Amino acid sequence: MNDWYDAEQRAERSQQLFESQRWDEALDEIDAALEINPTNPSWLAYRGFLLDNLDRIEEAIKAYESALELQPDDIDLLVALGIDLTRAGRHGRALTVFERVAVLDPDCEAAYCHRILSYSELGEHDRAEEMFYLAQQIRDDCPDCFFHMGISLAVRGKYEHAIYCWKRVLDIDANYPGVHQHIARAHRMKGELQRARECYLAELRDDPGNIELLVEMGELAVEADDLPGAVSRLRQVLELDPNHVGAASALADVLLRTGDAQAALNQLLALEEAEPASPHLDERLGEAYLALGQYEPARKHLESAVEHNPENESALMFLGSCLLHLGRSEQAVDVFTRMLAVDAHSPHAHHNLAVCEFLLGNYELGLKHCLRAIELKPDYGLAIYKAAIAYIELGRWPQARAIIARGLELDSDDQSLQQLAKRLWRYRCYRTIRNLIRLPLAWWRR
What we know:
Low-confidence stretches: 441-446
Strand content: under 5%
Mean pLDDT: 90
Distance between the termini: 135 Å
Order of helices and strands: HHHHHHHHHHHHHHHHHHHHHHHHHH
Structural class: mainly alpha
Number of helices: 26
Oligomer: single chain
Shape: elongated
């Protein structure tokens, strides 16, 4: 008798600790009670509930399953089990459980509500809508139903309808967690960045320590070209979680875009110490070293990135530029040629290949690539300038004059082209005089 009484006392003590949100201690007490009476279904169910609060979902599932072995038709237990199976991503099993609930009680709204999400995750959106309408016939103000239906609609790109569903959630329950964040994501997908920002801020007021939310706000700032804002958000994430690899990597990318290559390099080197080397990290390190003019370390990292992914266009572009700075024009030709094999329509690859050929003295071939770059990107001012130089070197004055005029039509303030236009006649006179000087003596005696 004393053992049974002690078990009851432990269970009661667990309830008191739970009310004080001392969940770990509450779990210890109910475990002690279950050691004495392991077949008490109420305690097993309560143990599952405690494990839910501790976010130990798989253990909670086992606790509910143990309780259901003793009470197989307990609808509340089945619903709790189905919800946790859904949270664990075991959607097929969750559907089976909720189908059992619907058989036991066809009017149990939860049996339909939670199947909306599982069917959506499995890509069966018609079935998800079917469950939504069945649930609505039982209860038309369930926030979970509208929340889950919004997810299904967003997955299919029906963002306006998804936003409507999530706003209905807020009409029913203004404090429903995560809704503003989902609405923000939908606005982002529609390109409505200011609205997305407002929704993110609304979510942040309710959940200021949400790291995932702060990362998304950093991404939004990048999309809105608010790079200082992105740096601020991502640094805020790293203050909360110094080991957040995604935020550290994103911050380095943003710092590179702001031109702060040294800060980006410091961030990347810290990341390299914390994480094993990766192709993405090698590419970013190569980019940072390249921006700082440290070409040898840049080359090593970029070659590693390209070795891991031979079709990585940005890594190939950086590597080719690095080789040019190192005076290895022939190797750079090979890299940019490989890049064109990946994307034959890259104007930048054609332009950089043209630069390589010019440095090697191959003006005709370089000009060919320059003109192709301009064909692909008609407003490519740098390629127009380089093509004009090539025409001048080849003595093709009318073409040089025509392409300079074309460039000035696109940008009348382009000082490089303006100066080239002014000096064009000098180049022509100089080339004429130089050619005359080179004529044989017999020509002058005619």
